[in-house]
Amino acid sequence: MKIGIDARMYGPKQAGLGRYIEQLILNLESIDTENQYVIFLRQENWDEFKPTSDNFKKVLADIPWYGWEEQIKLPKIIKQEKVDVMHFPHWNVPYFYKDPFVVTIHDLIMFHYPRAEATTLGPIKFWLKDKAHRILVKHVAKKAKHIIAVSEFTKQDVHNTLKVPASKITIIYEAMFSNQRSETGDLISVTAFGLSSSRREERELVLNKYGIDKPYVLYVGNAYPHKNLKGLLKAWKLFEQKYGSDYKLILVGKKNYFYKQEIKESRNQRIKNVVFTGFLSDEELVLLYKSASLYVFPSLYEGFGLPPLEAMAHGVPVASSNRSCLPEILGEAAIYFDPENYDNICDTIYKGLTDKDIRFDLANNANNEIKKYSWRKTAGDTLKIYKRSLKGR
């Protein structure tokens, strides 16, 4: 079987989606020596994936996502490789793609939070783009041989919103990132608790680099409106007014349009002890995880919620929104708050930082929760879907 994977969003720069594609491919490479794989990449992430198996091949598909080139040029590039089944790890499948494909739907955010502020487009262009995307998602869900959903919440959302038979949807959980490749291509372990003595100096350099001179609360992810960073910053202002300034809030994510808006807002509101690091390498990110006092996740809507699991894997207590899939995924290894109640966020953060009994319970519960998630299992279950999609051909 010859399997194609659209990996144009491969890598941590594309946040959770990029991490999913990256880890899926790396783990498929480690478990499957029988089937042939064609990995379609853009020029910007071409060097990020370095195949170590002969049955994995890279093909350049330097085409931006969501544009007309994706609709016209991408199918031609895929066609040249004569794949038996194509996996699109996101819903942006070319509308007229006719060959067998599997699609992963992570969430249906556009159907629930269609906000014009989530784009740099004007209101008319946003409306047209949003309409086109909804049409495409419905079409993709109908035409796919099979749909992978990343949680029970997402499966039910796809079933109810897009009217897709539940039998066509399989839940395959994501996992924490592990055995991540460094910039040199070597594998580095990022899930072991604690830091070696050789890395403590590296940690100090990273903390000094970003001016982190106090214990801190950490957030990792993008800044789209549904991520609710605006709400988190308001809660943090309350936190400092109520509990003092012994902690800093560290926000990690690529400084795109949306992050710049939050940076501007935090300055206008004179919110203190907030650090926006921008994008971090995996090595730097691991060191920040390892030293965080608490991880906070204020999202209004998620399909899976990978960053808080990554925090748990590093032994960091988690305070999370109680919305969408998050209680399903995080279970008893997080304390929860109402993401639209800023006082509740503020008090929950304080409790997560200072209540020793809660912190102890969260650490113990995290050890059990994270055992449920494995990228190797994700890859194995996904491979079964590839095979299933070709039955009867």
Short overview:
The protein is an alpha/beta fold and 393 residues long.
Write the layout of secondary structure elements.
Layout: E1 2-6, H1 15-31, E2 36-41, E3 56-60, H2 68-81, E4 85-88, E5 101-105, H3 109-112, H4 123-143, E6 146-149, H5 152-162, E7 169-171, E8 180-181, E9 187-188, H6 197-209, E10 216-220, H7 229-243, E11 248-252, H8 257-268, E12 274-278, H9 282-291, E13 294-297, H10 306-313, E14 318-321, H11 326-330, E15 335-337, H12 342-354, H13 356-369, H14 375-389
Parallel strand pairs: 1-2, 1-4, 2-3, 4-5, 5-6, 6-7, 10-11, 10-13, 11-12, 13-14, 14-15
Antiparallel strand pairs: 8-9
In words, what does this structure look like?
- This protein has a 7-stranded parallel beta sheet, with helices on both faces. A 6-stranded parallel beta sheet has the order 12-11-10-13-14-15, with helices on both faces. It has a two-stranded antiparallel sheet with strand order 8-9.
- 44% of the residues lie in helices and 16% in strands.
- The longest helix has 21 residues, at 123-143.
- It folds into 2 domains: 2-175 and 374-389, 3-Layer(aba) Sandwich (Rossmann fold); 191-372, Rossmann fold (3-Layer(aba) Sandwich), CATH 3.40.50.
- The chain has helices at 15-31, 68-81, 109-112, 123-143, 152-162, 197-209, 229-243, 257-268, 282-291, 306-313, 326-330, 342-354, 356-369, 375-389; strands spanning 2-6, 36-41, 56-60, 85-88, 101-105, 146-149, 169-171, 180-181, 187-188, 216-220, 248-252, 274-278, 294-297, 318-321, 335-337.
- It is globular.
- The chain is of the alpha/beta class.
